[in-house]
Amino acid sequence: MDKYLEYAVEQIVRLCNIPSPSGYTKKVQKYLIDELSLLGYTPQLTNKGSVIVCLGGEGPGLMLSAHVDTLGLMVRSIKPDGRLRFTLIGGFPPNYIETENCTVITRDGREYSGTIQVKNPAAHIRKDISETKRDDENMEIILDEKVFSKEDVQALGISAGDFVALDPRTIVTRTGFIKSRHLDDKASSGVLLALAKYIKEENIELKRKVWLMFTTYEEVGHGGASGYPQGISELISVDMGVVGDDLETNEYKVSICAKDSHGPYDYDITTRLIELAKANNLQYAVDIYPFYGSDADVALSSGHDFRHGLIGPGVAASHGYERTHKEGLLNTLCLLKEYITHE
After folding, report:
1. Residue ranges per structural domain of the chain
2. I need a labelling partner for 82 at 20 to 30 A (CA). Which of 25, 55, 273, 315 fits?
3. How far is Cα 11 from Cα 211, in angstroms, rounded to an integer?
4. How do residues 23-51 score in pLDDT, each as one tens digit?
5. Can you give the pTM of this predicted structure?
6. Which CATH architecture has domain 2-70+182-341?
7. DSSP string covering 19-54, please?
8. Which fold would CATH assign to domain 72-126+133-166?
9. For residue range 54-112, what is the model confidence (pLDDT) as tens digits?
10. What residues act catalytically?
């Protein structure tokens, strides 16, 4: 599977570098449609903006879902001195984005670079800077433009409601680590693209009808609420595995989630995933995610009659500058391969 692992990594790098905060995902939608078409599939765009594609097979439908929307910001207001106040898109502590580079995207498509800083960030004039609360009142976006007033910024075409994308800073190390923002969930999105390539090129016989879905509103809580074709009986969210204290998952494993904030996942699906991981000597862990929700949770909350599961590569430092490893990606890809090719 090495060929498909390298393809997955290539896709992760490309996806991470396409700005797609929740609500501004047209570029990544187009990329997915183009890439899946190049692989020989016929992807579709749902009314809400999810990309879905059938990989083949017959019988009860299995949907594998990842999301390509990310955390980000939106311009809340323009200050009198030309700095920008922001509001968060998705849930993360603002200190995670201090000193980060970003791009403001206007409604007519213009892009302006900037930096997110606390007010008066120079350590040479503030001894109390470490005590400043990191929030949208004490942090701001400083544009890389010669602006001194609200009117100067408005003249650039920037206004409240413009999206702000965070610089992903994507790096693949010689030791196999992938470091980037937005590995939640572009790491698993790359894995699903690799699975699609594997199925097509190796003429894999599927034991059921298999679909992929790439949702675009997961980070704001309703990505998996709608857009499913007829005949789906199982939904597995392929998202990030949580790495942290008292959890067994790490960046080298595929994580199988038994329970998250919304409750347990389907017993039979979870058990089958564990059995396949054991039988194929995969590096895996079974964990409880204490503060977590997935597109599968949302689908069930929306009234869909699905059995549901959740897996994904271990991703450290979730919702910050994240890190995973090629081994975690490979274990996830292999577990998915086993699940769709066995009764």
Report:
1. 2-70+182-341, 72-126+133-166
2. 25
3. 19
4. 999 999 999 999 999 999 999 999 999 99
5. 0.97
6. 3-Layer(aba) Sandwich (3.40)
7. --BTT--HHHHHHHHHHHHHTT---EE-TTS-EEEE
8. Elongation Factor Tu (Ef-tu); domain 3 (2.40.30)
9. 999 999 999 999 999 999 999 999 999 999 999 999 999 999 999 999 999 999 999 99
10. 218
